[in-house]
Amino acid sequence: SYRSPTWNPTNLFVGAVREMTSWLSAYHIMRGDVLVKKIDISSAGLHILAMALMFIDHLGVLIFPGNVVLRSIGRLAFPIFAFLLAEGYRHTRNSGGYLLRLMAGAAVAEIPYNLMVSGDMSCPYHQNVLLAFALGLLLMMAVDKLRLRRVIPLLLAGFIGYAAGELCMVDYGGAGVLTVYAFYLFSDRPVMLLLS
Predict the structure, then answer these.
(1) Are 147 and 157 spatial neighbours (Cβ–Cβ below 8 Å)?
(2) Which residue of 7, 62, 130, 151 is most buried, as measured by CB atoms within 10 A?
(3) Does the global pTM surpass 0.70?
(4) For residue range 182-194, what is the model confidence (pLDDT) as tens digits?
């Protein structure tokens, strides 16, 4: 027999989030009553969007220093890249290779990043964002390796990831590492993801 779903605010909110995310994954362009074009926002599309936003951010640093608008727009790149990292980890067959590529990218980018941020080849007080992503990836790998599923160990792992981000003085600090971790933990729970 058919049983109608019970109405409550949580079901309504979860339904709205699912509907919103389905529209975010496929924009429909309408002309009158005719569907003209469908644009899917794939992983590649998100990468391109994030790179364009990062370019705007770097324009704000290098060409127009002090331009808060460019920096604010550009800062939207980080959560997109953090989401893509968590999803990439979820779908990779070789997380060790993924980590090595991130660390190699961090090493290559460090000197240009230091020159951009401080004008010097060495800046021990601020590391590039790829190191933050590598710490986030290490955190996800550790949680999976240790099979952490209970709340207290997951919170403790998050605290360790936050502390590592702060101690390594990565771009976005411990909060950047936690952003990656939140996308990993709550990928199947849109309400918790939104709240985090």
Answers:
(1) no
(2) 130
(3) yes
(4) 999 998 887 777 7
